[in-house]
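Worked problem 6 (solution included).
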Amino acid sequence: MDQSEKESIESASEEVSREFKTLINAEDLDSLKQLQHLILGRLQDSNAVLSHFNEYSEHCFAEVSTDFSRNARLLRSMKSDLDYIFQKLRSLKAKLLATYPDAFLDDSSIEALDRRPDLEMPQ
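Solution. The predicted structure is:
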């Protein structure tokens, strides 16, 4: 490209930019700029609130996580203990049934003997 082509391209681009500026109202640009600043401020405020909430949540989680893990371990231990107890009870019941077949009543006779009210039934 020679110098004259560069000058003609430069003058054409200046002319296009001048024409483009006439298409846009300066007041509209100012109002858009104000709205953008207002939105930016609101977004920054929201970002600050969310950052504070994240820090607070992290702090609360750190406090609760140790209790939660300890209680989860306790529940697993209790479950294994109960499983062992029920296994022993089943084996004892099987031995009793083998030794004394009439020791445990069938379901119909149990219902006849049990006259307690059902507390889970609505009255």
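Discussion: The chain has a mean pLDDT of 86.
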